[in-house]
């Protein structure tokens, strides 16, 4: 990764005693922000932790010195420095006089998205989730540059607070050839989003901090017009969007469904359940855990459905190592459906047979138990598609062999309904000490969940 910080352009607008300390600091390149509050010592916040910069306290003159050298503050109490990515936010007293400043360091860091470049090339809409300060804006700035410069797409950035392309009419070079549309007022962001599609023929629209129901609705409208979206919003995980009514439309929306008695009995659920209303506006969700570790939901539709049912969902974790290599692993996660809503349907867990007793797989062990950690597994399929299972197991690190001879099998994979009716097969499995795993028939996801 390479960074272009323009830090000196920020420092020259700060009081001299702050400039002097920062210039001599050994962790200068790890600086995140500088805080100046009236009557307090100036504080610098690094990735390694906060630190006071001086014994001198901040006076009215120090605040006035800085505010006169930067652009005017907007209605959001934010300002910037010409041709840089730095952001200065102010705190005001009851008389609207500025008594505190937060100077956030803006960075254009090249190479931050190398681990998810394949997702950009898929041309699907991507939503980035993360808590404040984790680097979402830096990431989508680099996404804009890669899409416009390297993939040669028509990219338009909806830059509401001038954080992506800088506080200037001339966009910062960090966004590459992407175009930038500024937003006069925050409440008008959804209108500018629609205007960008109608007037400027973009292939990709990039939006930072989707936060209102109108913006979520505009994002859905844009997605239905066939334009690729890349957006960010606050949240730690996908489940946060389900619990956030204004933003749930981004992942398809959530609605109550009342089932008939027969249907509820067939599903094994309560009569009132939650279901996804529509197709998600974003097909891929990236949870930014930290700068080097991201959790990927490659199929948001399936992930949301699994979360609502309280079922297992498979997530992909990508970690960028110190040598710039990307390590990918899969993780099985399960949500507590009762934490989403009291009346949330549940589904039956996968089960296996041992000593003629059917036991919940979730409460016992997975297929990766110590008895099955051999380099080669011989699988006997019962009422399942051979081609479908082969498609799944070819992606697994273990070596699988599909056999037609039951006595040679290590495990039996089969349909729940058919296995429960075949007593002879169960007796043979017991005799040969073969584990039986039941899954939903011809469902690739349920097979993958079992094997991960």
Automatic annotation (TrEMBL):
Q: Which residues cross the membrane?
A: none
Keyword tags: ATP-binding, Chloroplast, Nucleotide-binding, Plastid
Q: Which PANTHER family match?
A: KINASE-RELATED, P-LOOP CONTAINING NUCLEOSIDE TRIPHOSPHATE HYDROLASES SUPERFAMILY PROTEIN
Output the SMART domains linked to this UniProt entry: AAA
Task: Please list the residue ranges annotated as the AAA+ ATPase domain.
Answer: 122-261
Q: Which SUPFAM superfamilies does its entry note?
A: P-loop containing nucleoside triphosphate hydrolases (SSF52540)
Q: What protein is this chain from? A: AAA+ ATPase domain-containing protein
Q: Name one GO molecular function term.
A: ATP binding
Query: Origin, by domain of life?
Result: Eukaryota
Q: Which Pfam families match?
A: PTPase, Spore_III_AA
